[in-house]
């Protein structure tokens, strides 16, 4: 009894948040899955249960296939690019450099700006006009004598999504840098010194001491970048709107809800996005919890 | 070479004189050069935004795209301000109270989950954390339906239209609720560093949970409050997804208005870029003045600590 009296007030204080999370996160995820399993394809009908039919028929739609392909290309280029650039920046700074504060501040500031605002300038920079009609980066390449570098950017049918990843890399690699920098600095200097005394070259110190210790940071960065990538929405809308040429699942879902007025289809697409993210986030969270429990 | 008490590391022993130091110096020079090059690349979009936003319409031709304005004009800024002002006001009404409410909730949750734990608190915390990673698309349609329903209920109960769907309070509710996980996480990780003995001492002195919170925990919570308020302010200000699903023309925040301005083919680049800069001013000020706290919020997002 006294034990209960000891922890009950705490539970009561957190109760509003527990209810809110239960309803707004888990309740609504469930509600969304249920909606995805009905034939409610307009705003008025009640919709009856059709099982996984929507999940299957979605693949018959050409636009869905295209948006999945786009999401894959975007994810590979964005996650790979941000990870590589962020790591490189951290690597260049980790031993300390004059003006480190300034460098960090500049690499990180894009994080504080909305994708919608950066989308405005990147749409201009990645304008597909070439030669006389060129503005943006194409114009810059042209005037630097690098006109062979001009291309259609996100309007390229095959690699447009790779171009779309550039603003996202610009926005997020500073964050990855900050994560890696904290990781690098967390490696005890004695450990490196000990390896050097044992005759390791600087390269071997990195290879065998520093990089293995950075693995948890890399994993965190991968998870964060990956889940941002799979639900990317603002950036695409801001740079190119609802065009099929840059369609991704999140934009397709928006179109399904607001333009096609098809709640069941919207819910199905949303369910796929949730599943894609859950597949790697849930194991990560479980792993984090286990690690914390270990003394 | 003279006899030394401790043997020098082999790599250095092979290097007579200052060759090692010179090589280290050259490496540092290369690192610095690369960092400066990336600095310039990172600032290109800022240059374009600033330069274009001060150009009169007569200098809009592609040939002068990268040049400084010949005549500097504030006209695009004035037009952008007129178009964007209602959205900026809506964003202020959203982000300021929203960030404060989030901080209070997060602080209480973090306190309980770190210092006044109940059975199952760890599992509950993990269930909270999943809420941080869910793609919000997965809850958007039910959320819209619920807010529409709440509007109808309010209408039938009070006779006045509800302020849930298509209005700022509904958007604020959504941001506060989906902000609970990250705010709880930041406060919990911060409160873990308060020694348990302090809490226990207050308990022995007969202080209850709330009393302990007020007199022991709250006075040292300043930095965590700063981190959470900045984090929530920034994400509410910059959010586009919730805003585009939950608000209407009267309640559009800055990002939606900016997207409408920038999406229109008829709006000149100079005005678009001035609007984009205007929309970023509040979060940039926060970043410049309080970047240290902003950083900590970012790191918390990585589940570290």
Automatic annotation (TrEMBL), chain A:
Keywords: Cell membrane, Membrane, Transmembrane, Transmembrane helix, Transport. It comes from the Bacteria. It is a multi-pass membrane protein. It holds the Pfam family BPD_transp_1. InterPro entries: MetI-like, MetI-like_sf, UgpAE/MalFG_permease. Its main location: membrane. The chain crosses the membrane at residues 7-29, 71-93, 105-125, 159-184, 205-228, 269-289. One of its GO terms (cellular component) is plasma membrane. Gene3D superfamilies: MetI-like. Residues 68-286 form the ABC transmembrane type-1 domain. GO terms for biological process: transmembrane transport. It is found in: Cell membrane. Belongs to the binding-protein-dependent transport system permease family. PANTHER family: BLL4140 PROTEIN, DIACETYLCHITOBIOSE UPTAKE SYSTEM PERMEASE PROTEIN DASB. This is Carbohydrate ABC transporter membrane protein 1, CUT1 family. It comes from Streptosporangium canum.
UniProtKB/TrEMBL annotation, chain B:
SUPFAM superfamilies: MetI-like. GO terms for cellular component: plasma membrane. Keywords: Membrane, Transmembrane, Transmembrane helix, Transport. GO terms for biological process: transmembrane transport. Residues 88-290 form the ABC transmembrane type-1 domain. The chain crosses the membrane at residues 29-50, 88-111, 123-144, 164-187, 216-234, 274-295. PROSITE patterns: ABC_TM1 (PS50928). Its main location: membrane. It is a multi-pass membrane protein. It comes from the Bacteria. It holds the Pfam family BPD_transp_1. Residues 1-20 are annotated as: Disordered. It is found in: Cell membrane; Membrane. Belongs to the binding-protein-dependent transport system permease family. This is ABC transporter permease. It comes from Streptosporangium minutum. The lineage of its organism: Bacteria, Bacillati, Actinomycetota, Actinomycetes, Streptosporangiales.
């Amino acid at each position: 009894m006294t034990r209960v009296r000891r922890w009950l007030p705490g539970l009561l204080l957190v109760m509003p948040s527990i209810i809110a999370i239960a309803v707004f996160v888990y309740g609504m995820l469930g509600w969304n899955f249920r909606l995805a399993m009905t034939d409610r394809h307009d705003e008025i009908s009640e919709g009856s249960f059709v099982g996984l039919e929507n999940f299957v028929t979605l693949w018959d739609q050409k636009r869905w296939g295209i948006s999945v392909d786009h999401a894959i290309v975007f994810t590979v280029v964005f996650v790979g690019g941000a990870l590589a650039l962020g790591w490189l920046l951290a690597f260049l700074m980790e031993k300390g450099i004059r003006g480190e504060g300034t460098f960090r501040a500049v690499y990180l500031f894009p994080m504080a700006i909305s994708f919608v605002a950066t989308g405005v300038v990147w749409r201009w920079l990645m304008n597909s006009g070439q030669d006389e009609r060129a503005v943006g980066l194409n114009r810059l390449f042209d005037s630097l004598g690098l006109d062979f570098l001009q291309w259609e950017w996100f309007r390229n049918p095959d690699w447009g999504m790779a171009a779309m990843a550039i603003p996202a890399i610009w926005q997020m690699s500073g964050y990855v840098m900050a994560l890696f920098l904290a990781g690098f600095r967390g490696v005890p200097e004695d450990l490196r010194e000990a390896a050097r005394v044992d005759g390791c070259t600087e390269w071997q110190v990195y290879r065998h001491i520093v990089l293995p210790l950075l693995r948890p940071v890399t994993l965190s960065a991968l998870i964060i970048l990956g889940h941002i990538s799979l639900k990317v929405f603002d950036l695409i809308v801001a740079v190119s709107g609802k065009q099929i040429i840059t369609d991704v699942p999140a934009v397709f879902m928006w179109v399904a809800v607001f333009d096609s007025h098809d709640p069941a289809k919207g819910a199905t697409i949303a369910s796929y996005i949730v599943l894609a993210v859950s597949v790697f986030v849930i194991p990560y969270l479980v792993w984090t919890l286990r690690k914390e429990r270990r003394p | 070479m003279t006899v030394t008490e401790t043997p020098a590391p082999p790599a250095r022993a092979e290097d007579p004189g200052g060759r090692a130091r010179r090589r280290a110096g050259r490496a540092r020079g290369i690192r610095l050069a690369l960092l400066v090059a990336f600095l310039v690349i990172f600032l290109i979009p800022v240059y374009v935004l600033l330069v274009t936003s001060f150009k009169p319409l007569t200098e809009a031709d592609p040939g002068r795209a990268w040049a400084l304005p010949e005549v500097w004009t504030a006209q695009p800024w004035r037009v952008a301000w007129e178009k964007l002002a209602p959205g900026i006001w809506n964003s202020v009404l959203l982000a300021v109270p929203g960030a404060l409410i989030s901080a209070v909730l997060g602080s209480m949750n973090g306190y309980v989950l770190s210092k006044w734990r109940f059975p199952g608190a760890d599992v509950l915390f993990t269930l909270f954390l999943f809420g941080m990673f869910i793609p919000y698309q997965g809850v958007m349609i039910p959320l819209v339906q619920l807010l529409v329903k709440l509007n109808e209920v309010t209408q039938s109960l009070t006779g006045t239209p509800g302020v849930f769907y298509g209005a700022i309070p509904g958007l604020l509710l959504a941001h506060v609720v989906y902000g609970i996980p990250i705010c709880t996480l930041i406060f919990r990780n911060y409160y873990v560093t308060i020694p348990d003995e302090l809490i226990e001492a207050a308990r022995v002195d007969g202080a209850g949970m709330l009393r302990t919170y007020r007199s022991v925990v709250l006075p040292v919570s300043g930095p965590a409050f700063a981190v959470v308020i900045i984090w929530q302010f920034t994400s509410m200000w910059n959010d586009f997804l919730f805003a585009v699903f939950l608000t209407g023309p009267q309640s559009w925040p800055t990002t939606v208005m900016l997207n409408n301005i920038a999406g229109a083919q008829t709006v000149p680049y100079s005005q678009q870029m001035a609007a984009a800069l205007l929309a970023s001013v509040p979060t940039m000020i926060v970043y410049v003045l309080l970047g240290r706290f902003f950083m900590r919020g970012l790191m918390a997002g990585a589940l570290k600590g």
